[in-house]
Amino acid sequence: MQRLRLFFAAWGHYVLALMCVAAILLSALWTRDEQRLQGMEAPAHADQAQRLSQVTPSPAPVDMQRPVEGKTVRPFSEGVVYFEKMCCYGLHPSTDVQVQEGEKVLAAFDGKVTCEGERLCLSDGDFTLWYEGIRPAFSGPRQVKKGMQVGVATGGVAWEGEGILCLTLYRQGEEENIEAFWE
Questions:
Q1: Running along the chain, 183 residues long, what does each successive block of 10 average in pLDDT?
Q2: pTM (2 d.p.)
Q3: What distance in Å separates the CA atoms of residue 115 and residue 112, rounded to the nearest whole number?
Q4: Could you give the CA distance from residue 33 to residue 79 in angstroms, rounded to a whole number?
């Protein structure tokens, strides 16, 4: 203990100065990464806007509904978002809805269901909806009607967190914001 006190008495101000320099360098690196990520978003939005202006939207399915009652906790995004659970940035072309483990999950529209572990795919030809964080109610492909129970919520999605049902909607292969189609 005495040696430690002598060390800090002689070298303490150097250690403190070194810690300040390290903090400044880390802050500069963090800011540079934030600016780089913000720079990445602008071209992505411009490209998406141009793509959308060239597409004639097809009509939404008449009978699309919310698969669960929970509120949206992470909305669809065409840009980069921060995932707290994984401590990283990434794209999020999905909608995360709050659920309780064991909660019933319903078909959003009429279509064919296929299952892959804790993922479920509902498709009607034009639209494909992926549910993640679900335990399917049955195995194998099956035709379902809007409002029919297709599974129960598992209580979370590995990379997104607890209490989440992740919904990713595609229309003819392009990601869509599912909330724009809910009744």
A1: 73 72 69 59 57 54 80 85 75 89 94 88 93 89 94 82 89 90 77
A2: 0.64
A3: 10
A4: 15
Stated as kind and residue range, the H or E segment containing 72 is: strand 72-74
For residue 159, give Cα distances in angstroms to 49, 163, 179: 28, 12, 22
CATH superfamily assigned to domain 72-180: Glucose Permease (Domain IIA) (2.70.70.10)
Cβ(178)–Cβ(127) below 8 Å: no
Residue 66, C-beta contacts closer than 8 angstroms, at least 6 positions apart: 97, 106, 108, 182, 183
Handedness of CA 138, 146, 97, 127 (dihedral sign): positive
